[in-house]
Design a protein that fits this description.
By secondary structure, this protein is of the alpha+beta class. The chain is 53% helix and 15% strand. Strand 10 and strand 11 form a beta hairpin. It starts with 22 loop residues before the first helix and ends with a strand.
């Protein structure tokens, strides 16, 4: 997980927690954020400045028309007023009514709407102060009622004469264009991120010891270079492992040949007290040689296969108990936990841990669990255990602990080193902890 530049705001609050964790999401934010900010600025300028300014001008034009109508009503007699009303309605496209004898109660509140403020200002300038009026919405239109000398003049003004009509079309075009740009950005980003995701999956599979035969570089130039570097690295590592395995196979043959001759010579000799220790020394040399070769080879030549770990744990525990002629292993292993592993290598890990547990404890428990994308195999015993500050020391090659509990006793000091090497070749690890039984707990963690 890459670190984020986002600052920490407040005590314990980080914007980083709310950001996407993947490259695609973060790249999309880099593109979408400027678009959203730009659209917000455009919307602010359009609505707060252009539309507001245009609305004020329209309202002042309507207010000027109302001032003219009021002045005509106040300065002419009844026959002329009716004729002027009809002429004004045709020319201004207003619906004008005269309500004789009515009056409008004085307004004591504060004017807030654009049309009210414009009417108050224009009427005060052209007619005089203290002219009462009211505005109201009737459907899509505005009704303006103003006091005249002998009644109330009611004028119904179309909506498009007072405010900007259809601003929703602008919003629709703005949102539509933004969505179109975002859709194009998502398509291009998806195609650019896909090669990186494929490279990450290939590297993850290779790190877990799994074959990646069908991986090929594609995408942008930089991604192709990274992918080609990964393929070169993979080929070098596989070639190195192959060379080591072939060399060690020859070394094994060369070293075991004289040991075999010695075993044959001892077999032809008569049994006496002197030949017994010699046979034991040769058997120990063969065992140490096998462990040295296994540690150097690291089970590198084996291919990964999908394996039911529950079945493997039960079979390995049964074999370990039979080899030690013990019945004290408690196994808790559910079925159908299938993981791609190197069967022989993982069986060697479990056999090593079980053998150590049976060697130092009278009660041994093996538990297989899966949490999310991680599988854990725990081997516990009731032996003397190991001090927590010496857990890592137990994994060092050729290291024998000078304690009553010695995981490497009777061996070459490579058992746990080989086990951890195999576990890490699977992309996992082995950890040591205190067991609930009182002894040591070895935990094998493997990714699914």
């Amino acid at each position: 997980m890459a670190t984020c530049w986002c600052p920490i705001v407040g005590d314990g609050f980080s914007v980083k927690r709310f950001l996407p964790r993947g490259l695609f999401g973060r790249s999309l934010i880099i593109i979408v954020a400027p678009i959203v900010i730009l659209q917000a600025i455009i919307a602010y300028v359009f609505f707060e400045r252009d539309i507001d300014t245009t609305t004020r001008r329209l309202a002042r034009d309507v207010a000027a028309d109302m001032a003219l109508l009021v002045a005509l009503e106040d300065s002419h007699t009844s026959p002329d007023r009716e004729r002027l009303r009809a002429l004004s309605a045709r020319q201004l496209n207003y619906r004008i009514r005269f309500q004789p004898g009515d009056n409008i109660a004085p307004f004591r509140g504060k004017l807030t709407s654009t049309i009210d403020l414009a009417l108050d200002d224009i009427l005060e300038q052209r007619i005089g102060a203290d002219r009462d009026f009211r505005t109201a919405r009737i459907g899509d239109d505005f009704e303006i009622r103003v006091d005249v000398k002998d009644g109330v003049l009611a004028v119904l003004v179309p909506r498009d004469r007072v405010t900007v009509s259809k601003p929703d079309i602008f919003i629709l075009w703005m949102v539509g264009s933004s969505l179109l740009l975002m859709g194009i950005a998502i398509l291009f980003l998806r195609n650019q991120v896909r090669p990186i995701e494929r490279l990450a999956r290939a590297a993850d599979s290779f790190g877990k010891g799994r074959a990646v035969p069908d991986f090929k570089p594609y995408g942008a130039t930089e991604v192709r270079r990274a992918a080609q570097a990964f393929i070169t690295m993979r080929d070098r590592l596989e070639r190195h492992v192959t060379q080591c395995t072939e060399m060690l196979a020859g070394v094994s043959h060369d070293l075991k040949t004289p040991l075999t001759r010695l075993k044959l010579a001892l077999a032809m000799m008569e049994g006496d007290p002197e030949t017994g220790p010699m046979r034991a020394d040769i058997a120990e040399m063969e065992h140490m040689l096998d462990e040295y070769l296994a540690f150097a080879r690291g089970e590198g030549g084996e291919e990964s296969t999908v394996t039911d770990l529950g079945e493997m744990v039960r079979d390995t525990a049964a074999a370990a108990a039979k080899a030690r002629q013990r019945n004290g292993i408690t196994v808790t292993a559910p079925d159908h936990i299938d993981v791609s592993v190197k069967r022989a290598g993982l069986r060697r890990v479990l056999a090593n841990l079980l053998d150590n547990a049976l060697k130092h404890g009278t009660q041994v428990a093996v538990t297989l669990t899966q949490v999310n994308r991680v599988v854990e195999i725990a081997v516990e015993d009731n032996g003397p255990g190991i001090a927590p500050d010496r857990h890592e020391e137990a994994f060092r090659p050729f290291r024998r602990l000078d304690q009553g509990r010695n995981l490497q006793s009777g061996g070459s000091g490579l058992g746990l080193a080989i086990a951890r090497d195999i576990a890490r070749a699977h992309g996992g690890d082995i950890l040591l902890d205190k067991s609930a039984l009182g002894g040591l707990k070895a935990i094998v963690r493997l990714p699914v």
